[in-house]
């Protein structure tokens, strides 16, 4: 299994290198720094495009794809191209999200737009989206039947639409307070959970699982993805700075209407809701304002409710994994991954 994950990384590097080599016949490095920017974002280069080893992210989604394939009785090597496509696609969304959110740091380094500007960051994201299509489409080289490749590719692109739909909703909700918690969950189901769900579903499909069983894997991935995002929201407020690499209460400073804040808005009385809205209306949220929001969250016991929601999604994911008939060491690794995601501190 570790060999399969290493192969995912090699496949990603090969796709980027082949594209760069093809461009090199037409452009100089100085005229077309695109691929250096991609290598930087993926953690393979420093800002001067020299080889480097940086934090490349958790690689959770490709791992789920490979493990789901094995747990469904398939050869995990078959899932490697799709897993590489998933990770390249995920990185496309990160580059564009950083632009839209105005985030100037990711993985303890400056973001692409912070170094090279918004326009070049959009170009880099577009390139990652195009590159993400290529490994999956070459899956037949690993023995995947053509009809199955088409099925997975079609769902891959449908998933991209769900992600973008979720991002559109996220931006629309920034200026509103009349957002039910259920609407927020629907938004993150598209923006975050849909790719995790695709990873689990595609792994099962590549293993040859029937429609019903593959849909169980998809449901497992959905529950896992929802729990992952809600835990992320929890850490964005209560995470320890020395662990997360972000200041305590960072999501409050950024005035994010995350799951805990929307829960607070739904529970607060009229006066407290007005205080919360006034803080979020400020151009900048200072330390005193962060403390005021934290006191409101404590008053209404929001952290406990968020922790319960994470635990519930974790339990649902494990139940669905069993219903999918997952077996063997891969099943145990998927269960352990679900446990780690539910209790992670960063």
Account of the 3D structure:
The structure is a single chain. The chain is an all-alpha fold. Helices cover 73% and strands 1% of the residues. It has 16 helices and 2 strands. Helix 2 packs across helix 6 and helix 3 (60-71) packs antiparallel against helix 4 (80-101). The longest helix is centred in the middle third of the chain and has 28 residues, at 146-173.
Strand neighbour order, sheet with most strands: 1-2
Tell me the name of the CATH class: Mainly Alpha
Major sheet description: 2 strands, antiparallel
Order of helices and strands: HHHHEEHHHHHHHHHHHH
- What is the CATH fold-level name? Farnesyl Diphosphate Synthase
| CATH-level-2 architecture | Orthogonal Bundle
Compute the separation of the termini in Å: 24 Å
Strand content: under 5%
Count the strands? 2
CATH superfamily: Farnesyl Diphosphate Synthase
Keyphrases for this structure?
single chain, 346 residues, mainly alpha, Farnesyl Diphosphate Synthase, 16 helices, 1% strand
């Amino acid at each position: 299994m570790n060999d399969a994950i290493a192969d995912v990384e090699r496949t990603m590097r090969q796709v980027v290198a082949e594209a760069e080599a093809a461009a090199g016949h037409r452009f100089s490095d100085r005229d077309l720094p695109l691929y250096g920017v991609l290598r930087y974002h993926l953690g393979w280069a420093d800002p001067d495009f020299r080889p480097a080893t940086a934090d490349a992210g958790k690689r959770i989604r490709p791992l789920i794809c490979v493990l789901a394939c094995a747990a469904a009785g398939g050869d995990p090597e078959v899932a490697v191209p799709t897993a590489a496509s998933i990770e390249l696609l995920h990185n496309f969304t990160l580059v564009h999200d950083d632009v839209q959110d105005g985030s100037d740091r990711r993985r303890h380094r400056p973001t692409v737009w912070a170094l090279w500007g918004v326009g070049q960051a959009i170009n880099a994201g577009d390139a990652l989206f195009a590159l993400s299509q290529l490994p999956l489409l070459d899956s037949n080289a690993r023995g995947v039947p053509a009809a199955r490749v088409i099925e997975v590719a079609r769902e891959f692109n449908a998933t991209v639409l769900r992600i973008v739909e979720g991002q559109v909703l996220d931006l629309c909700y920034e200026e509103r307070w009349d957002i039910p918690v259920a609407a927020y969950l629907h938004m993150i189901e598209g923006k975050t959970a849909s790719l995790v769900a695709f990873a689990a579903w595609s792994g099962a499909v590549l293993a040859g699982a029937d429609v019903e069983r593959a849909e169980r894997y998809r449901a497992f991935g959905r529950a896992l993805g929802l729990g992952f995002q809600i835990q992320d929201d929890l850490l964005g407020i209560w995470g320890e700075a020395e662990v997360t690499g972000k200041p305590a209460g960072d999501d409050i400073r950024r005035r994010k209407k995350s799951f805990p804040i929307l829960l607070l808005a739904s529970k607060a009385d009229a006066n407290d809701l007005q205080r919360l809205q006034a803080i979020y209306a400020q151009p900048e949220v200072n330390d005193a304002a962060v403390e005021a929001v934290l006191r409101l969250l404590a008053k209404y016991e929001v952290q406990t409710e968020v922790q319960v929601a994470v635990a519930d999604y974790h339990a649902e994911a494990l139940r669905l994994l069993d219903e999918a008939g997952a077996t063997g060491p891969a099943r145990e690794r998927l269960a352990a991954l679900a446990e780690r995601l539910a209790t992670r501190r960063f």
